[in-house]
Amino acid sequence: MFKFFFLQHSNIEIIVENGVPRGGSVVETLVWMKALHGLAHEVFQAKLEDDDRPLMPEFEWVKPVKIYHSQKYSKFGLRYFYRLPKLFLALQKTKCNYLYTSIPSPFSFYVSLICKAIGVKHIIRIANDKNVDLSLDKSLSPFDKFLVGMSYRLADFIVTQNEFQYQGIKSQFHGKKVFKLFNPIVLDYDYLHPRKEATGYIAWVANFRHQKNLKLLYEISLICKNEMFKIAGIPLIPMDEETEIYVEKLKTLSNVEFVGQVSQSGMLEFMKMAKILLSTSRYEGFSNTFLEAMTVGMPIFSTDTVNPDGIIDKFDLGILYKDAKDFKSKLDAMELSEFQIMSQNTVDYVTKNHDHLMIGRNFLGYLTASNLP
To answer: CA-CA distance, 248 to 82, in Å (whole number)?
Structure first.
């Protein structure tokens, strides 16, 4: 039995009472936790010292470990002198075998150094294509990008979501132990049925930011006046200028409804009532919303730039479009028989390829394989 320490403290939001989970990496990380727990391994999760919220009863198998106080020594230099020793002591206390980083960041470099010092294997999960092509991440300074790159060089394992990420990391960091695993999902067989009718609203699910391209969402909603759009998500503060403009424009449309943040427990029910999932993203890794849509037998309409490993057209899981006009044309032309075939394909595909225990076993196999390239 191995001990896994999950570092990103925002993960705690999805397992504590009154938590406010945000972002796909938190959702994905919880599924990895469930997979490892289901395969009889111990799961530790970092928690801030000033966070006293109890775990929800269904997550009592997670072992929270307090790492540091979020408000102490807030100045940049002092913050690291305070936080790194505290993290060092927390890792020593747990005697974990692996530390899992959900999203690589400049801080990951220092985490890698700590792991090297105490003999813990550091796993970095690539959460988004921008973690490979760092030019896509406008929030990072050149020095930050240097630190992220160094964290990759020091990490023991790098886990990627798609072929673009896998090839990108392999080409940049020769000799690293890199492997590719699609995102896992806990399959809910109460929902896992193909659709007979193409009815309901068009679902769009994401936090509001530039990557998610609300400009394109507005253009589609504007041209498809006979369709109802339900938008699930909340702004990431501060919003970029483009996103802020198009959130306000979307609010003026009578066929658009903002439903706010949908809880993880309510997401499948939200998806179940829609006829298609719409993605307008400029780039992704492997969207958890794709898996949730497949779980309820819902086809995916995505931009032709967001199609991880070509699965949407390769396995006929939905339809790719280029712009708002192309989206409307293809939606209007979709026959019921075509919709039913895509719906059946999504159920078959997610069942065969994304079960969390199956992928968890593959994950463990890669970690323990002596001949991993």
So the answer is: 42
Give per-residue pLDDT as tens, 199-256. Answer: 999 999 999 999 999 999 999 999 999 999 999 998 988 889 999 999 999 999 999 9
Domains of the chain and any CATH numbers: 3-184+355-368 (3.40.50.2000), 201-353 (3.40.50.2000)
| pTM (2 d.p.) | 0.91
